[in-house]
Amino acid sequence: MTNPIASLKLGGAAAVLTALMATASLAQTAVPTEGMTTMEEVQFPTLDGFATDQEVIDSLSAQGYENVVVLRGPETLIVSGERGGLPTELIFSATDGTLLMVDGIEPATDG
Hints:
Protein name: PepSY domain-containing protein
Structural class: alpha+beta
Number of helices: 2
Keywords: Signal
Strand content: 15-25%
Order of helices and strands: HHEEEE
Mean pLDDT: 75
Number of strands: 4
Helix content: 25-40%
Shape: rod-shaped
Organism: Paracoccus haeundaensis
């Protein structure tokens, strides 16, 4: 290249391209937020008696649930209610009363 104007144009284009690439990489940099939030451990309910719907309602009411509704299926008990103003759907095993799901998520097991 013998033309100095063409060299300046090429150098200027390279500088602009470098600046744009640096800006894009800075925009993608993750910055950790201060004061990460944590979730308190939630105690899930247990069923002491599950032979009748009223036993289920009484058991969950004693554990702080309100507006409890029980739907029985062939293998599950679907129980909906509110605790602390938050609606919750609980799915229990109809055979032994163990908690299978809470709001569509399997509870973590100790072990």
